[in-house]
Amino acid sequence: MRIFVLGVLFFNLALSQQILLIRSNPEEIALKINNQTAFFSEIQTEKGLFLRLRDEFSLEYGVSTELGKAELPVIREFIEIPQEAEINIKFQIQNYKFQTLSCPIYPLQPPEPKCGPKPPFNYNEEFYQRDEFYPTEYAKITDIVQIRHARIAILEIYPFRYNPKQNLLEVVLEAEISLKLTGSDLAKTEEMY
């Protein structure tokens, strides 16, 4: 059982006040998110006027990664899991709202080089014609890696989803994320330490 106490401490150090660890044991890790702060800024481009969405998550964690598609805040967390564990994610929304926007959300751009020409404006026209929410899921595991003795899952949480055709933003205000762990090899995990 010692391993999970260490895992909780490791994980808890990375959490902000908007993400709370509810429980952590060999069968489940549960988190609660509270998403209350968001603001927009207008950006004029060669393709017209866009809104850039920012919140405490994007300032602390980052944004989506698909160039030319809507730049949305993403929460990324490293979570220690037992050896051999398979993860099943359950995302339960407790409070949400929809917001109709005055103009589209700004598309993600490549980084600007320190020297040399600025890259051209990246705009995925096909994406902005779709009548579906992006991203399609609220949370996913993007990778599982072994870092020395610890097996780490990279969890991405999407508190905002955007429908470009309707220009509609879904805002998850409160949610609980449960990572169900099956097939954990606790003996192998203990040996790693």
Describe this entry's structure for a reader:
This protein is mainly β and 193 residues long. It is 12% helix and 46% strand. It has three helices and ten strands; from the N terminus they run αββββαββββββα. Strands 1, 2, 6, 9 and 10 form a five-stranded antiparallel β-sheet that branches. Strands 5-8-7 form a three-stranded antiparallel β-sheet. Strands 3-4 form a two-stranded antiparallel ribbon. A hairpin with a 2-residue loop joins β7 and β8. The longest helix is centred in the first third of the chain and has 12 residues. The two termini are 12 Å apart. The N terminus is likely disordered.
Describe the structure in brief.
Helix content is 12%, strand content 46%. The protein has 193 residues and is mainly β.
